[in-house]
Structures are given as structure tokens and as C-alpha cells.
Amino acid sequence: MSEAPYEQILYEVDDPIATITLNRPEALNAWTDRMGEEVRHAVARAEEDPRAVAIVLTGAGRGFCAGADMKLLRDISQGSRAQERDPALAADPGDASVGEDFRGTYTYLMSVRKPVIAALNGPVAGMAVPIALACDLRFASETALFTLAFSKRGLVAEWGSAWLLPRLVGPACALDLLWSSRKVGAEEALRIGLVNRVLAPDALLPAVRAYVEELAAECSPTSLRIMKRQVYQQLSRELGPSEREAIELMLESFEAPDMKEGVAAFLDKRKPRFERV
């Protein structure tokens, strides 16, 4: 995947992390179609880069993302939304074998072959919430503030949030958040399962880096990829087929180089040297 002329994001690879930063801080990183294209292209680049064990999505300035740019919403409401695409940003990240259910406009993040972690450094509003939910993990700053403002705009539960949100917080809590559009602080988000960790603002990105560095040092990238696919595919399957598939995958793993290396590393009391994928 070649470089592209990014205008609204920053992209950096610092082994073992590829960081994608939403970069419209003057607008609290409000989401545009262009930003979505750039993020998608950058994700595809990171997915192909063996230096990147995981992909981190964060925001510049004081917040993660204010949701859809109001000009975009105005254009949609007036029926004049422009759909121009930059051919230099054409990209198709993710593993198609995970299934079409995980290949949507933003849910494609769930099919990406590497862990995708949202580092939520401030307000997360509107459509930014389902984008964060489509990431595999969410680390939040103490300044993070969540609000699903759809009901106050005459909208619905957008971008898969009616499927994603109940699976994290339960249906009653999901309906409360969707109906009321109330603001949820970082500590409540942690308590209800919306985020995985809450950290001081200056500790957020270092904590994400430490987490990924541990994955890079201790865990098989192939195992991470297969486990991610298993978890998402099994969300809509029964236990029996899930267990039978796990047995098949386990038997395959017995013959794979990573299993041999993992056992050898344990016996030798050293860190494993897994191949990057």
C-alpha cells in the first residue's frame, strides 16, 4: 500500500505501533468523508506493515472526535451531499473471510488482521462512538466524554451501534444511552463496559504503547489474528459449532511454527521470537 496525500489525519509507524491521528483539532476532529477515506487507507497501510503489531486510532488536540462535521450533516439534510472520492485513497483493508457482516463502512475495522485500539483522548460524540466501538479495545483518558446524539438530531442508531453497543453494555443500558443522548464520563464508561481502561491524560498513549509492546514481545501475531476472527465470527453462532471450529484450529496450530517456538521459548526461559505478519 503506497503513501497518500493525507490532509486530515497523521500517520506514523513506530515499532510496534502504527498510529492514526484524526487531525482537525480546530473542529474537535469532526468527521468528514475525506477523513474516513484517509483513515481507511492508513489502516490498509498499517495492516501490510510488519513493523505494526497493532493499530492505534486517536485524536489530535483536546478530543477524539466530535462526530460528523455539521456542514456534512447540513448538506445531507438538504440533499446536496457531495460524494467525490480521491482515487489515491482507494483501499480495501481487512480480511474478507471474516464475513460481510464485518466489512461495513466502519465495521471493517473488526475484520482488520491486527488489533485496533482506540485511544480516546477526550470527547467522543455522535458517529465517533460507533467508530470507537468497532475498534477491538478502547483505552480512555479521564477527560473522555461519550454522547450518542442521534435522537437529538432526528436520527437513528447509526453505523451498527444498535448491534455493537448492546454487546458491550447490555440492551437496557444501550437504550438508555441511545434514547437520552446523555453524556457519559470516563469512569461510568469503564463501569458499564464501554471502555477497557481509564488513564490520566498524559498516561493514555504511553499505556497503549506498553500494552502493544507486551503483545509484540510475548504473543504470536498469528494467534492474535485468528483469535480476533474467532471472537467476532462466534458472536452470532452457537456454542457447539464454535467449539468444533476451535478444535480444528487448535489441531492446525500444533503443526505451525509459532506453536513450536512458543513451547521452546517457555522451556528455554526466554522470550519467544514469533514471525511478524
Structure description:
This protein is α/β, with parallel strands linked by helices and 277 residues long. It folds into 2 domains: 9-214, 2-enoyl-CoA Hydratase, Chain A, domain 1 (Alpha-Beta Complex); 219-268, no CATH class. Helix content is 41%, strand content 14%. The longest helix is centred in the first third of the chain and has 16 residues, at 33-48. The model has no long low-confidence stretch (mean pLDDT 89).
Which homologous superfamily in CATH is the superfamily of the largest domain?
A: 2-enoyl-CoA Hydratase, Chain A, domain 1
Number of discrete domains: 2
The main pleated sheet reads as: 6 strands, mixed
List low-confidence stretches: none
CATH secondary-structure class of the largest domain: Alpha Beta
What characteristic shape results from the CA principal axes?
globular
**Mean of residue pLDDT?**
89
Q: Report the strand count.
A: 9
Query: How would you write the strand order of the largest sheet?
Result: 1-2-3-4-6-9
Give the SSE string: EEHEHEEHEEHHEHEHHHH
CATH topology of the largest domain: 2-enoyl-CoA Hydratase, Chain A, domain 1
* Beta-strand content bin: 5-15%
Radius of gyration (CA) equals: 19 Å
Structural class: alpha/beta
Query: What is the assembly state of the chains in this entry?
Result: single chain
